[in-house]
Amino acid sequence: MIRTVKIETPVGEMVAAATKDGICLLEFTDRRPDSDLLESIAKMLGSEVKEGSNKHLRSLKKQLREYFKGKRKEFSVPLVTPGTDFQQAVWKNLKKIPFGTTLSYGEQAKNLKSIKSARAVAQANSSNRIAILIPCHRIIGSDGSLVGYGGGLERKKWLLNHERKFSGKAVELDLF
Asked: Exposed end of the chain (fewer CB within 10 Å): N or C?
């Protein structure tokens, strides 16, 4: 059974979903219709979706509150991330990018020691269904510009500046 809840955040409403094993979805509700997101994850996991909470969703809400207050830099809630081996490697690598830090797609591909191109890495990033916890917002263009964030560039800028503020890094980025 996949349980779902809505979560209000400083950057907009999100829908979260979890199985008994962990969080399988955290996405902005205005990105695409909830029904599409939930239908897709239900099909992938071969499970039914029902509104309601579980221990992972309760933990997620708490950890997100801490993150947005600047008190949490890493998430410990378990994740369920169905995908190809390459996608799994890319998402695992994303989770290694420290809070308040950014990388380019090329740097990410190099870190993966991948013979695949930065474009394949970008495609795997865009398949990420767990925003913020798998921090694809920390990937920027090789020229330092904001590029490719499913939640929108304004949110990406907000998240990066939020993390810089609480990581002790320099002042806000002007990434447009």
From this structure: C
**Long-range contacts of range 86-91, CB-CB < 8 Å, 24 or more positions apart?**
86/114, 86/116, 86/120, 86/124, 87/124, 87/127, 89/114, 90/121, 90/124, 90/125, 91/124, 91/128, 91/134
CB atoms within 10 A of CB 15: 18
Structure tokens at 104: 């380019």
Residues counted in the chain: 176
Q: Is the pLDDT of residue 33 over 90?
A: no
Indicate the pTM of the whole model.
0.91
pLDDT of residue 171: 54
Q: pLDDT for 104-160, tens place per residue?
A: 988 998 888 875 688 888 899 999 999 999 999 999 988 889 988 888 999 999 999
Q: So which residues are the catalytic ones?
A: 136
- Residue matched to tokens 């399988």: 24
Query: Which domains are present in the chain?
Result: 2-68 (3.30.160), 85-167 (1.10.10.10)
Q: Which residues of 65-88 are buried (b: 16+ CB within 10 A; e: fewer)?
A: eebbeeebeebebebbbeeeebbe
State residue 150's pLDDT score: 86
CB 56 within 8 A of CB 78: yes
